[in-house]
Design brief:
This protein is an alpha+beta fold. It is 53% helix and 16% strand. It has a two-stranded antiparallel ribbon. The chain is globular, with a radius of gyration of 13 Å.
Length: 64
């Protein structure tokens, strides 16, 4: 995804009350382990990773 496309994604999600963040794999695995989400904590993650959080309507955020 190009930087401009990612910016457009962030703007669109912001209009829905959601946020999109690039998160290092190690930090995501650690946070998942702390929250007890073992399936995610044990995954072999590679490459860039973005996480969408919040939103008034999670279904709309996911579809966006």
């Amino acid at each position: 995804m190009k930087v401009s496309e990612f910016g457009d994604l962030r703007k669109g999600l912001s209009a829905l009350g959601a946020e999109c963040h690039v998160v290092p794999n190690l930090i995501l695995r650690h946070a998942a382990g702390e929250l007890g989400i073992c399936e995610l904590a044990d995954m072999e993650l590679t490459g860039e990773l973005a996480v969408v959080t919040g939103g008034k309507d999670p279904a709309k955020s996911a579809k966006y």
